[in-house]
Write a structure and sequence with these properties.
The protein is mostly helical. Helix content is about 90%, strand content about 0%. It is rod-shaped and about 125 Å long.
Length: about 150
Amino acid sequence: MRFQYAFQKIVDLKGNEKTQAEWMLSSAIGRLQEEKKSLGELLENKERMVNQLQEAAERKAPVAKIQEFQMYVQHLEQCIEKKHSDVKKADVNVQMKKTQLSHKMLDEKVWLKARDKAKSSFQQSMLLKEQNELDEMATVRFAMRAR
């Protein structure tokens, strides 16, 4: 007799939910890395522009050109502030997805453990049934010899 778990579809569902949570976490981590990379590029651009601004000031460039550099640096600083906010949001999202994944993993583990327990109980009952049949056969043989 083969073991069939009555709640196997729920176990499968929990496994699928865990897999989906893993994908969501992977996606959130990818988004966080993109935001960090973008922030790094903005910081590099700002540093480059600050250097160009200093060089322009040292070369006694026209005031209009220096103001243009300053305005662009200010714009980059605003973009960097916004990007810091985006990185923080992406990081919060990653933490939230990690928490969801751990809940899904725990939920799946509970159902898998319940299935294993049911399977173990089933196997024990089958062994007991087999042992009872062997005992009955031995009793019958003994009774036949006794006649």
